[in-house]
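Side project, low priority. Logging it here so it doesn't get lost.
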Amino acid sequence: MLRLRKVPIDTGFQNIAFINRHCSEFQIGTINSLANRVEIHGGLQPLYANVYLVDDNNIVGPDELGLSLQPFYFINLPEGADVAISPSSPPTSIESIRRKINGGILSAKEYQAIISDLASYRYTPTELAAFLVSNASFNSPQEVLSLTQALASHRQPIDWGGNLIVDEHCIGGIPANRVSMIVAPIVIAYGMLMPNTLTHSVTSCSGAADAMEVLANVSLSEEQAVSIVSKIGGCMLLDGGGLSTSAGEEMLLGLEKSLGLSTSQQIVASSLASKIALGINHVLVDIPVGKTAKVHTMSEAMNLRKLFEYVGDMMGIRVDVIVTDGSEPVGRGIGPVLEARDVMNVLRLTEDAPQDLREKSLFIAGRILEFDPQLRGGQGYQTAREILDSGKAYETMMLLIHEQGKQTPPPLGQLTRDITSPISGVVAEIDCSQLNKISMTAGTPLDKGAGLDLLKKTGDTVEQGDVLYRIYASKPTSFAFANGLAEGNSGYKISAKGISSY
């Protein structure tokens, strides 16, 4: 037996055990021969972890087992408790992944086994990456359904106290586009139940949760969320903040972010599994299409739409899929603080509120309102506009901020640079992917005051030297790298007679 010790190191979604090189219970060769994977016994159920060897007795002694913060929390034992360790073989479901890599079609039972092993932290990061890659080339509709069912089965649905529970989901890839922060107050003000689930950025410069937490706390527990929804009809909360998110989902999202890998099949499975597990039964899905968006063509969008509808039908959730313009950012600000500014300007009805963000928000809110059988088809947009223009949406947003816990927005980055047009002409194209890269290099989303403030959009006439956008950053190194990227490719294509320039 070894004595349990907490090692104050955050290892993210990995379970890491620290064992002294001269451990009294384990031989080094025994550990190395099994890919450094062990089972830890002593808690309510076995805990699986990968082993790091330690030479410093001050960190972990020869008669101790150290656990990083996450597995120490999971094992739910006090420091000094007796635990036993034994070698752990690779999970049997890894054979299914090997078969998938070789072109096989997996069954529902195999996906259940894979996600069960993921939820138990039995996979190493390498094995998890293999699973993501194996699913990146091809998945049949039945496989996507099986993966969705497996992910949803590992979360306990929330009862929001109503029959019609709505939400929206955008597959992302477009900078700014903080539509959900405007849609939710409109829908809640109308009287629908809308626990709007937000996520942090996975592969882009900012997610809805990154922007909303500039204004309010989004890491709500299930009890807090249910209480707020019962009081005002909705909330805007982080999916995976205080909620019982599936360990499999956490690990998949974490690795997707680090690899920059997010396929359409995984988008369908993870997004619908999350909505279903959270008790959502009506969801609107937004697919932006553009040359530099995640989805490039209408043909791709239609295939993705059919996949969403198929899985939704089979899972018993109403899915309304819309295709929107993804050729340029929606709104002016890119980055959490700048995006939150745009949202509040739309809700406050200010003159400088970005009209493209307003119009897209009204369109999506209108489609969601038409889930209400009492509302005739085509009336949703007009109803949404009346709610926004009356100030009720702004009042609802302020109520949400108050109930969830108001935050003080951080300042914008103090390091700024204006990126100007090299020629006179017209803004012909905006490269969303390049602006994403520049913003992330400037520090988003972790540095909430970093980002880009767009002063010109597609179709605008510019003179040589006119400012296209302003870079904000807080750290000199990030600022310098962002400037270098923008100098190489600003992300703007300016067209004049016989001349085109980035």
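Brief comment: DSSP finds 18 helices and 19 strands in the chain.
Revisit when time allows.
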